[in-house]
Amino acid sequence: MHSQNETDAYPTFxxxxxxxxxxxxxxxxLSGNGMFWTRVIWSACVVPKHxxxxxxxxxxxxxxxxxxxxMGIVTSDACLICDDATENNCHIFFSCYYSRxxxxxxxxxxxxxxxxxxxxxxLRWLARGKHLSRFRRWIFASGxxxxxxxxxxxxxxxxxxxxx
Length: 164
What we know:
This protein is mainly alpha-helical. It has one domain (40-161). It has helices at residues 4-15, 20-28, 38-41, 48-58, 65-71, 89-95, 97-110, 119-128, 134-161. α6 (89-95) packs across α7 (97-110) and α7 (97-110) packs antiparallel against α9. The longest helix has 28 residues, at 134-161. The protein starts with a helix and ends with a helix. The mean pLDDT is 84.
């Protein structure tokens, strides 16, 4: 039999263990710090390569022409798709005429009634959209992330193969 002191020590020993969901939240930084959009990007319904490119776009880590120009790698920072403005993260997603037209068409196709037309506002709208069902949120997230991925792919085709 256990003495009273041994059973009293047992709950203290158990409290030293961690809970996996707390560790997961801390690793992904889901609690606080304004990272509300991570749950939208890293959901189970999204294709991983779409999530990865959107994550880089949201963090402004894609190698856009303005960043490459600033590093001295390219001579021009003009948009490869429209050749009308500086190619930066905000321009590609969704200020460029081509990308704006793409997101408008996707939103019409999905019956997505949001006036937002930039990636940051759309992710915020999805993350905070308490009025949306889980299914609609998944559909909208899939559409947004697929559009983001394919716009980046179109940009890379314009860079490497001169195709738009």
